[in-house]
Amino acid sequence: MLFVGDDWAEDHHDVEVQDAAGLKLATARLPEGVEGVAKLHALIARHGGENLEPEQVVQALIAAGYRIYAVNPRQAARFKERYGTSGAKSDKGDAHALADMVRIDGPQLRPVAGDSDQAQAVKVVARAHQTLIWERTRTFQRLRNTLREYFPGALTAYAGLELTSADALELLLKAPTPHEAAKLSKQQITAALARQRRRNRDQKAASIQAALRESQLGIAAPVTAAYAAAATAHARLLIALNEQIDVLEEQVSAHFLAHPDAEIYLSMPGIGTITGARMLAEFGDDSTRYTSAKARKNYAGTSPITRASGRTHAVYARHARNDRLADALHRQAFSAINTSPGARRYYDKQRARDAGYNPALRQLGNRLVGILHGCLKTRTLYDETTVWSHHAALGTAA
């Protein structure tokens, strides 16, 4: 058995190969890309490892039988402290530490999952979709802050439409300054609302027009023009983001629904297509990755951690976790309390024990992760009666 430490930079890899006794067999700096992968395979093969084709990459290494570990930089840094406390660092030294780490502490590390091509496709589009949504939120905040500086009346006028909506952005682009906005006619405003099929258009148009014509705090014309240019740029970016989010949403739905696990995810309470896709993307579909429901809960970050030392014993929420997965699980738990009677009873039980809103949702999410694990392991759909029968019986007895 060979142990390989690979300190992976953007344009090169520093590699060390060790045997089972920790003897250093080879070190090398390899380029990134196909050439580097080919040299890595040759290096491993030279010392008795399996010889792979040059065009194979990390996922192919997993499929070919290599066990790959992704090591958190913090873990690597803590491990290196056993060699010395000076803080010295080099890529070659990091590769040596990583090889030692997988040789000595391999059972304590989590192997990289060998997810299917379908799951990887879901991950790519689901993450891209969520990233664009986060970027839209940041762009909206920038636009809002810009408007507050020179045109706060626009925030009041378009409050009922949401500033990220197509009609609000259309009107803002048409009239980005207080002077221009005050000249907008009711017909122009109504036409923009009509294109988005708004209800009560006449009433809303009159309200928007009145708000835009209220007196504003004036600032110098050149400064107003500069702010208007910045607001226009943010508005155009929001329009582009809205369009691409819609396009990616279709891709997320298509890839997720084509996956064999989609039916199980969608049978769970509080999970729709987008939430299900995000959960599948982050959990993966490797059936050997999570040995138990506890392992899945730990990875999800929903299970608590215990800190016990001497007479001190405390239980805390996990903060080091996959934020994308945590966000999806929070959304599921929030929706589940409105669609699942069992989930609602479980949530109410936590609140009755003086748990706050977020801790109660987190505990419900932890329970739902365990249920999902059971459904995926047994390849069965969620059943409300079966899942919550124990809790219902306890409630009746109480």
Beta strand %: 5-15%
Low-confidence stretches: 51-56
Average pLDDT taken over every residue: 87
Largest sheet: 3 strands, antiparallel
What is the CA–CA distance across the termini? 57 Å
Identify the overall geometry. Answer: globular
In terms of structural class, how would the helical and strand content be classed? mainly alpha
What is the count of DSSP helices, taking H or I runs of 4+ residues? 18
Helix content: 55-70%
Strand arrangement within the widest β-sheet reads 1-2-3
Q: What order do the helices and strands follow?
A: EEEHHHHHHHHHHHHHHEEHHHH
Query: How many strand segments?
Result: 5
Radius of gyration: 28 Å
Can you walk me through this structure?
By secondary structure, this protein is mostly helical. 62% of the residues lie in helices and 8% in strands. It has helices spanning 34-46, 58-63, 73-80, 91-105, 117-150, 152-157, 166-174, 178-182, 186-195, 201-212, 221-257, 262-267, 273-283, 293-300, 323-339, 341-352, 357-378, 384-397; strands spanning 3-8, 12-18, 24-31, 305-309, 312-316. A 3-stranded antiparallel beta sheet has the order 1-2-3. A hairpin with a 3-residue loop joins strand 1 (3-8) and strand 2. Helix 14 crosses helix 17 and helix 16 (341-352) crosses helix 17.
